[in-house]
Amino acid sequence: MAANATPGLQIRATKQCISASHDISKLSNISFGFGSKRKSCKDFRSPSYISHTKPIHSFKSAPIKFERMVTKAMSGANEQVPVSGLPIDLRGKRAFIAGIADDNGYGWAIAKSLAAAGAEILVGTWVPALNIFETSLRRGKFDESRVLPDGSLMEIAKVYPLDAVFDCPEDVPEDVKTNKRYAGSSKWTVTEVAESVKQDFGTIDILVHSLANGPEVIKPLSETSRKGYLAAISASSYSFISLLKHFLPIMNPGGATISLTYIASERIIPGYGGGMSSAKAALESDTKVLAFEAGRKHKIRVNTISAGPLGSRAAKAIGFIDMMINYSLENAPLQKELYAEEVGNTAAFLASPLASAITGATVYVDNGLNAMAVGVDSPAFAGLDIPKDNKS
Ligand SMILES: NC(=O)c1ccc[n+]([C@@H]2O[C@H](COP(=O)([O-])OP(=O)(O)OC[C@H]3O[C@@H](n4cnc5c(N)ncnc54)[C@H](O)[C@@H]3O)[C@@H](O)[C@H]2O)c1
């Protein structure tokens, strides 16, 4: 990379390319303006630009992925980078992302966007999933998904075993200590992981919480046990407070934290039970209070992304994710697939100096579904002329 080149995500996509993005054939002469060797949109047909993102839903065969073009248009990790533009430049920043165990979830997508912007990536992986994740990583199973917009592979500097429901070794009950899925791993409570990161790297700049767990998620709230409810809150809400509490002392001022929430916190989503809706409501409320506390004391920003439905491993365990994806396609203002990368790019923005005045916010990345008060696919609207995006 040239010394003066700006890496990572470059906010420089032309209006034409974004708005007419679904049909690449219409775009062949539009320039993205990468310095002297200007690329046309047609260049983005190249599989290397479109291969790494898996569609969450294969309902239509769009000729090219919308977000890949935009990302490529934003990317400038080569010598043809323009001097103008608005870069998401996270070079020299270090991120710890808690909650990655495969390449399907939001944590992975966030890691990729942060890496594309130049950040160093550390990962915290749930202990029971650690072995399979590390083995898959080592064997190259994720290599295709590791490809960044500039063609390089995302590097993970270190993977830490983590169980975010335990703050310190004294909290760990005997049955977990002796569980064979925990054998072979050590120092995985939150305090110990923060301490290990401090010893290995000194400081971090970005903390991402991309984890949730609700053992009774398939039970309606009114049938949820106290134990199940508290477990959901512990794993999905308090875990963020705990991570923030223990990582704050090693976070550089000006840093940012991001968690992932879901609209079920504020609107009724039947099927998202077991206290998970309550856990997300707590997470969003805590985002505000923690933004105040971390902002005043440490100059750290605290935001949460309310993401639309994605067919991740965790979401599939709930059982109705395909229904939610289809519902969104039918009812959201933007009738298009939602890509994990779109959440990743928002996280990169929120972590960057471009978002230096944003804290305590819940940012929706859901094709606008949160703004709807009715489901327009209801038979009740049968007689109404509802505009449809037939191109997606
Ligand atoms: N998938 C969706 O539709 C959707 C929508 C909105 C918000 N979210 C949120 O996004 C975040 C990431 O979830 P995802 O859907 O990408 O699924 P995912 O399966 O990729 O991520 C969940 C991760 O949490 C980890 N985890 C569970 N318990 C843990 C613990 N005690 N300690 C450490 N790690 C633990 C799992 O191993 C997994 O890696 C979650 O907060 C989820 O609620 C997901």
Automatic annotation (TrEMBL):
Q: Which molecular function terms from Gene Ontology are attached?
A: enoyl-[acyl-carrier-protein] reductase (NADH) activity
Predominant subcellular localization, coarse grouping:
plastid
**A single Pfam family, by name?**
adh_short_C2
Question: GO cellular component terms?
Answer: chloroplast
Kindly give the Gene3D superfamilies that the UniProt entry links to this protein: Enoyl acyl carrier protein reductase, NAD(P)-binding Rossmann-like Domain
GO biological process assignments: fatty acid biosynthetic process
Named in its record, the pathway it takes part in is: Lipid metabolism; fatty acid biosynthesis
Is Cytoplasm included in the keywords of this UniProt record? no
Query: Tell me, how does this one assemble?
Result: Homotetramer.
Task: Write the protein's name.
Answer: Enoyl-[acyl-carrier-protein] reductase [NADH], chloroplastic
Q: Which organism is it from?
A: Capsicum baccatum
| Source organism phylogeny | Eukaryota, Viridiplantae, Streptophyta, Embryophyta, Tracheophyta
